[in-house]
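Might I ask for a little of your time on a matter of protein folding? What I wish to show you is a protein chain and, alongside it, a tokenised description of its three-dimensional fold. I should value your view on which stretches of the chain appear to form regular backbone elements. You will find the record immediately after this paragraph:
***
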Amino acid sequence: MAAKKGGGFASKLYLALLLMVSGFLIVVLQFGFIFLLVALLPSMVAYFVDLDPLKPKFKVVFSCNLAATFPTLAPMFQAGIQLRRYDITALTGSPDIWLIIYGGAAAGWCLLYLCGQLAYFVVGARNEYTIRHIEEEQKRLISEWGVQVQGAPPSQRR
């Protein structure tokens, strides 16, 4: 039987929730919503690049990207809640702001690739230490108790 694509209750609920949150952000942020969309472009790319159904890469990049975007969104939210307009031209024209925002997304990609390599290195070093420790303990036991502690070679065991 072929699997159903989309159309399920969960996907409709997700779409409705996405539309409601987007509507709220449009009302509160006004032109800041467009700024938010452009700021989160690296996260959107990560969503489409990540082929895993649980989207772990997207979650990491989105989290880092959003964390770097929050400091610029806070004054927009404050102005939106107080029903004041917020001029985003100073933000959109500042290369420092874009460097911080896209740098946050880049940090997310670095976390994805560097943390895997770092974990590989740490686990390998720990395993080497454990092997060395066991071999030293084996040598100590042989020197203390003699060769009979080793037991029969594997070819002579039954």
Notes: The mean pLDDT is 88. Residues 35-145 form one domain. The two ends are 52 Å apart (CA to CA). The chain has six helices and no strands.
